[in-house]
Amino acid sequence: MSPKPRIFSAHSHTAPLCTRTHQIAALILVTATFFFTRLFDQSFPPSPCYLDRHLNLHVAKTNDAGHLLWPDRGYGSHLSLKIYVYDENEIDGLKDLLYGRDGSISSNACLKGQWGSQVKIHRLLLESRFRTRKKEEADLFFVPAYVKCVRMLGGLNDKEINQTYVKVLSQMPYFRRSGGRDHIFVFPSGAGAHLFRSWATYINRSIILTPE
């Protein structure tokens, strides 16, 4: 005769209930832990070394000339970022990127349409209080070019734009110094940096603005 199968009821192993007594005990434990932690902290104040290190994090540092050092001078009321704007006459080829191969395209003509941001950003930085005329003190470098406008108005074709950019970049020692990381380029419209076909080779580490 085969043994009868065991029937396991859903109530065979009932989990212990969390009673009100358990809840009160847990609350007392949490309160006691908080109390003793605060008491322990007050009994052992931070060491002078810790305080000095902590306070130094919030003290603005200056150089011998009294100027705030980075990053302090890059934030809040102490903001004094320095931006150098390349002049159109200092680099051979830069004028071509601004006015076309024969210089017949005016900046006012390039203010119109979607590409106007290239001109507006350039003019804004020329008048900015953050502009510096000393490359050695600059944090960032702005490379002016109206290539979207110049291309649309027939001042340069795609091949000429590419060749001219390469020519211009080869004359920038500060660009080579940082690998282009601190240089700003503006390429408006959906084409973006592809207006410079070799951008991925030459300015892939640079700051690229693509306003639309």
N-to-C series of helices and strands: HHEHHEEHHHEHE
* Tally of distinct domains: 2
Distance between the termini: 88 Å
Helix content: 25-40%
Major sheet summary line: 5 strands, parallel
For the biggest β-sheet, the strand order reads 2-1-3-4-5
What does the average pLDDT come to?
A: 80
Briefly note the structural class of the backbone.
Answer: alpha/beta
**Number of separate strands:** 5
Shape descriptor: elongated
Return Rg in Å.
33 Å
What amount of the residues lies in strands? 5-15%
Unreliable stretches: 7-12, 50-55
Total DSSP helices:
8
Structure commentary:
It comes from Gossypium laxum. Pfam families: Exostosin_GT47. Keywords: Glycosyltransferase, Golgi apparatus, Signal-anchor, Transferase, Transmembrane. The structure is a single chain. By secondary structure, the chain is of the alpha/beta class. The longest helix has 24 residues. It has eight helices and five strands. Strand 4, helix 8 and strand 5 form a beta-alpha-beta unit. It starts with 19 loop residues before the first helix and ends with a strand. The protein folds into two domains: 37 residues; 138 residues, no CATH class. 37% of the residues lie in helices and 7% in strands. It has a five-stranded parallel beta sheet with strand order 2-1-3-4-5.
